[in-house]
Automatic annotation (TrEMBL):
GO MF annotation list: phosphoenolpyruvate-glycerone phosphotransferase activity
Gene: dhaL
Species per Swiss-Prot/TrEMBL record: Curtobacterium citreum
Keyword Endoplasmic reticulum listed: no
Pfam families named among the record's database cross-references: Dak2 (PF02734)
Full protein name: Dihydroxyacetone kinase subunit DhaL
UniProt keyword terms in alphabetical order: Kinase, Transferase
Length: 213
């Protein structure tokens, strides 16, 4: 499937479904090292996104991504709203007016999302944040595109790397966010933002394959 507007809309629907499915898990992860609202906030945000997308009309993937950004920023509390909202906003800008995302444009979209998170949160890989998922995802996507992979395969490589990146946060000491106040007590717990990033990127892959939502 081409990474076109229909794909972007399906990505939104699958993201809303997977966040709803994993809401309790994300709440638990955040309760262990944060304030426990990550799953609830994201679920509320993507319900609003889904309503806006299902009720809207879009000509490009970038237009869909921009709607996701504005809804997340306006409806999601805590750190997740500004961080994911900025990621989607920068991704929309990178997508521009393209009717489909080719491999190189997809890499630019993912890199812009990562850079948006970094600029907003001032975190780096190793700080035990969602950047630990976004960073490897962009690196893997870049390598896959350079090797000649098609957009769907580039996206799959990014999602796989994000999942591994989320897992890699477990032994880390947090240097940003609420978890940073816990010091060594945060060790052994997975960062909820990295995990939700992995779920969001996996939903994007499922939208290319027609896998069950």
């Amino acid at each position: 499937m081409a990474l076109d507007t229909a794909w972007a809309i399906d990505w939104v629907r699958r993201t809303a479904a997977t966040i709803d499915e994993h809401r309790a898990e994300l709440v638990t992860l955040d309760r262990e090292i944060g304030d426990g609202d990550h799953g609830e906030n994201l679920d509320r945000g993507f319900r609003a996104v889904l309503e806006a997308v299902d009720g809207g009309s879009f000509d490009t993937p970038g237009a869909v991504l921009k709607t996701v950004a504005t809804k997340l920023i306006s409806t999601v509390g805590g750190a997740a709203g500004p961080l994911f909202g900025t990621a989607y906003l920068k991704a929309a800008q990178a997508a521009g007016d393209a009717s489909e995302l080719d491999a190189d444009t997809l890499v630019a979209v993912l890199a812009a999302a990562r850079d948006g998170v970094v600029s907003r949160g001032k975190a780096a890989v190793g700080d035990k944040t969602m950047v630990d998922a976004w960073g490897p995802a962009v690196d893997a996507a870049t390598a896959a595109a350079a090797a000649g992979a098609d957009p769907a395969a580039v996206l799959a490589a990014a999602a796989d790397a994000a999942a591994s990146g989320a897992e890699s946060t477990e032994p880390l000491v947090a240097h940003k966010g609420r978890a940073s106040y816990l010091g060594e007590r945060a060790v052994g717990h997975r960062d909820p933002g990295a995990q939700s990033t992995a779920y969001i990127l996996r939903a994007a892959v499922e939208a290319t394959t027609g896998a069950a939502a």
